[in-house]
Automatic annotation (TrEMBL):
This is Pilus assembly protein PilZ. SUPFAM superfamilies: PilZ domain-like (SSF141371). InterPro entries: PilZ_domain, T3SS_YcgR_PilZN. Gene3D superfamilies: predicted glycosyltransferase like domains. Residues 97-202 form the PilZ domain. Residues 2-88 form the Type III secretion system flagellar brake protein YcgR PilZN domain. One of its GO terms (molecular function) is cyclic-di-GMP binding. It comes from the Bacteria.
């Protein structure tokens, strides 16, 4: 990041999916100094309270996109009013894939239920848009079959988050002799989507630390 970089900011625990735009004004003492952000939908200035958890993304001069998590640390007025954020370490920057949702390889407990089938299995990968899972031998789904899912998301802080969601089968494939089903989520709330985004982000951090 450099002075003048445009930042896209998302509250991490909000019930909506608001996004804000801001600009990096200064960096010093482990802090980022940014302009007061503007809501991208309403074009109005947003007030961020101390301790607010945020996800920030930006694009560098090479057109690579990165994101990181941070926290509001206060306000300062030097010629212009600014908000202070924690500056991330290099290891905490995640390169953003150029697709709608990042998909991470992870094996978590999953319950899948349709009108005629109900079983427990594990995921092969997860994103905020859908997931892949190991299909039980002898069981099969058809494209567009509706299913209900219950999954356990082990978070970075040691807590397990339980998520129940509706899904729709998109297709299946064979991977190393194992049948894998793929589905997309249906009718997720903003909070549910945010939880999945947070989980996949934490998975990326974990993989980066290895």
């Amino acid at each position: 990041m450099k002075i003048g970089t445009v930042l896209t900011i998302e509250p991490m625990h909000a019930s909506n999916q608001d996004k804000y735009k801001s600009r990096l004004v200064e960096m010093s003492g482990g802090k980022l100094y940014i302009d007061y952000p503007i809501n991208m939908m309403t074009n109005k200035t947003v007030f961020l309270i101390d301790g607010m958890q945020l996800r920030v993304s930006y694009t560098n001069d090479q057109n690579d996109a990165y994101s990181f998590e941070t926290e509001v640390k206060g306000r300062k007025n030097i010629n212009i009013p600014m908000i202070l954020l924690d500056q991330p370490d290099e290891k905490d920057l995640i390169k953003v894939q150029r697709r709608q949702f990042v998909r991470v390889n992870t094996s978590i407990d999953l319950s899948v239920k349709s009108k005629s089938i109900s079983f427990h299995t594990v995921t092969e990968d997860v994103s905020a848009g859908g997931l892949s899972f190991i299909m039980k031998e002898g069981l099969d789904f058809h494209t567009a079959d509706p299913v209900t899912l219950m999954m356990v998301l082990p978070m970075r802080n040691g807590e397990n988050q339980y998520l129940k969601a509706d899904g729709e089968i998109t297709r299946s494939k064979m991977v190393n002799g194992v049948k894998v089903g793929m589905l997309k989520f249906k009718n997720l709330t903003a909070l549910e989507r945010q939880l999945l985004l947070r989980y996949t982000f934490e998975c990326q951090l974990k993989m980066k630390e290895k």
